[in-house]
Fold this sequence. Notes:
InterPro entries (chain A): Trm112-like (IPR005651)
Shape of chain B: globular
Helix content of chain B: 25-40%
Number of helices of chain B: 8
Strand order of the largest sheet of chain B: 3-2-1-4-5-7-6
Protein name (chain A): Methytransferase partner Trm112
Pfam families (chain A): Trm112p
Order of helices and strands of chain A: EEEE
Radius of gyration of chain B: 17 Å
Oligomer: heterodimer
Organism (chain A): Halobellus rarus
Structural class of chain B: alpha/beta
Largest sheet of chain A: 4 strands, antiparallel
Radius of gyration of chain A: 11 Å
GO biological process, one term (chain B): methylation
Distance between the termini of chain B: 34 Å
Shape of chain A: globular
Amino acid sequence: MKESLMDILCDPLDKSDLELEVDERDGEEIIEGRLVGTVTGEVYPIEDGIPNLLPPDMRDEE
Amino acid sequence: MTDRTGGADGTKRDLAASRGIETDVYQPAEDSGLLASAVEKRGRGRLLEVGTGSGWVAARAAREAPEVTSVVASDLSPHACRAARRRAMGAGGDDRTRNEAGGQGPTGDDAGGDDRPNGGATVDVADGSPLFDVVRADLVAPFADDAFDTVAFNPPYLPTDPENEWDDWMERALSGGESGRELIDPFLETVGRVLAPDGVALLLVSSLTGYGAVLDAVRECGFDHEVVVEESYPFETLSVLALTHGSET
């Protein structure tokens, strides 16, 4: 995901802001990392450039 | 989804299998082509495609919709997200390659983009950044208020007997539950939040789902609507509705 996407993402649980933590980036592109709910504390992983913003109870299915 | 309407489970699976390499992800068909042409007509600004599947419509929007400036594609399925991401990165997602390889693209005369040259690209991918962003999401849940000028959705809409559900990812790409509206209703109830005040939602509706029932839900959720494109096929009529915030909201 591009870092600019942060402008339009929010925590799916309560629509509050998310904080970006980056493990690997390629220019503007975030490859690995996580998004953390500033209110809920929920952690949403970013893997292979795809943020998984499913709420926790929907997340385990593959 | 025209040709998936009549068959038993086995038939639908065979069709799904013959259409794409992976059977977990819905591959572009007539409905995809129709939604893409509606996006080219009415899409503008920042666009979200909900339930993007293989990412084909999102890629068309990013490349060819003249007034669309950026695209986000989302899906519930991890398989779809990965397929869409591959397409976004330009690997294995080129329309020309795919159509030459298997003719899997839309077949409707007005719906297909098969005759287009490669021109018209609106996004420069030379720097290695993807054509569009992919987010794994439940409908519009993780997107900010008023974030999008355009939201496009080709929902899973086939009415399905609960006893015949397969309970896998292809099932979830096709089935709209018993009514056919299991995803349409929650979409209509939530999309207004992420749509800018003058934004437009483009919703594909099949006659199989019950056009009147969808229109009732559209009105209940406070949207005005107009038909952007419509195509008739042997088993269904497909329409794309443009939904805008009603005057009361």
